[in-house]
Design goal:
mainly alpha; single chain
């Protein structure tokens, strides 16, 4: 992805690995919304509105960050993070097997300040009986969203294929280009 695509809504290019991870999360949410996927449940629609939308983004970013850290990838190298892979080695597997560990594994430092409050909230919701419902709802929607992106990128049996984020990035760029062309043509189609 280009810095502009990775940085939708931020106003500046991502600088740290964590910011690249947040950008990937934003791109996945944006892709699912723009690709015309039907909203599968009311829970999905409610969770992808603020403030829970930001929790979904941060949870996606935490899994991407964990995968990047495990693979010693930094900054733009997050393009090579595995979205999906056999034996749960990709982001989709981390979300289903170790989501809370991913959230807790993001280091608390200056470069990870964005999303810090959401990481704290996610960990607190997961740890409290009265917050479990919110944690579980955000986790379910995040897992479904990541699986939708993986299925669109790698096919129906996405968990059998090593598919890096740059494959998703290419598909996302094509979607944005097609939408831009459609918008231009629509303006002249009176």
């Amino acid at each position: 992805m280009t810095d502009g695509e990775q940085n939708q809504g931020q106003g500046r290019a991502p600088e740290s690995t964590w910011e690249f991870c947040l950008s990937w999360g934003t791109a996945m949410i944006d892709y699912v919304e723009k690709a015309g996927h039907a909203v599968p449940t009311e829970e999905w629609a409610l969770t992808l509105t603020e403030p829970d939308r930001l929790l979904v983004n941060v949870l996606l970013a935490a899994a991407i960050h964990q995968q990047a850290s495990t693979s010693a990838l930094a900054g733009e190298e997050t393009n090579d993070v595995l979205l999906c892979a056999p034996q749960g080695r990709g982001v989709t597997g981390l979300l289903t097997q170790q989501a809370l560990a991913c959230v807790q594994g993001v280091p608390d430092q200056e470069s990870t300040v964005r999303g810090r409050a959401e990481r704290i909230a996610l960990a607190e919701h997961a740890g409290r009986l009265d917050g479990r419902d919110r944690w579980e709802r955000v986790l379910r929607v995040t897992c479904e969203l990541a699986a939708t992106v993986a299925r669109d990128t790698a096919g129906q049996r996405y968990w059998e294929t090593e598919t890096p984020l740059h494959a998703f990035g290419a598909m996302y760029r094509r979607l944005l280009q097609h939408r831009q062309i459609a918008n231009v043509l629509g303006e002249h189609d009176y």
